[in-house]
Amino acid sequence: MAASRQTPLYMRHEELGAKFVEFGGWLMPVSYQGILEEHRGVRTSAGIFDLCHMGEITVAGDRALEVIQEATTNDASTLAEGKAQYSLLCRPDGGILDDIIVYRRKEDFLLVVNAANREKDWAWLKEQNRGRAELADVSDEMGLIAVQGPKAEEICSALTDEVLEDLGYFTHTEGEVAGVPCLISRTGYTGEDGLEIYMPVQYAGKVWDALLEAGGDDLQPVGLGARDTLRLEAGYTLYGNDIDEATNPLEAGLGWVVAWDKGDFIGKEALAAVKEKGVSRRLVGFEMLERGIPRHGYPIQTEQGEVGIVTSGTMSPTLGKAIGMGYVQKDSAQVGTELEILIRRKPGKARIVKRPFIKPSVKR
Length: 364
Fold this sequence. Notes:
20% of the residues lie in helices and 34% in strands. With 364 residues, the protein is an alpha+beta fold. Helix 2 crosses helix 7. It is globular.
């Protein structure tokens, strides 16, 4: 097995006392001061995240849009320069290869993919491209740092001449941050307002240091542990847990990123068949009514027997109760339905609730 890779910020994480974990082939900080403290820091002030492990692929040329329209489920033709959208790569059978962000830049499209799927996505896109567009895997050339939380904009504004206040949700601009040429995007994965900053990888350390200095006591490093509790409270799916090649967008509640009217795309025929027939299961959110924390893989049951499986679960620092997501049979997926989660083979009462568990405070 290949050794885990390290991001260009690895030594800085060590100096900050981070605890590490292997994630998607990378050695990443799971926490610094503690998951609870980091989680609350993002909700009340701001947190900084190392996302240099993420993959980036550019698509350029006269037929770039054609390739992206065919390979993704959303409608990239609606993107003006400086805009971005959430989208999916699907297999012909409708299974989700990855969930991605598509950025429309002046000269090309930038696709940001999950770290663990980088090689798979790259091979898939090259196969679908058939020589039509100019593809490049630029993952090793780009660094990515996120600043998330109510004070994120204020902290980042101190380091750039760009007017970040005017930057709308899923909109991006190009400008200097701490003297480094960057792409600045109002996107994120926490449910809080925030920015994601892309830069040449050799300057990742410079930008990281400048942000920490500008943020002072209002900004703290955040690891994968709090990143997971934050995204779950916001109801965001995690690839490999809640969605994968065995799940389709309709059952996962991601039908809103399937653009049926844009023409043919990979997986459209299979998804249309699922839409006509109806899904057999749905991804739902639930809260525990009894003690116990649901974990990935735990069975879900009702009086009728086993009806599904937990895909994500945690103790919500914001709500003070255990929450989770999982797939359940369609006839058991209504909000308010009472369930039992088998936690270490002991049933614990739970109830289906609407997602997100907290109202995201992203800037629209």
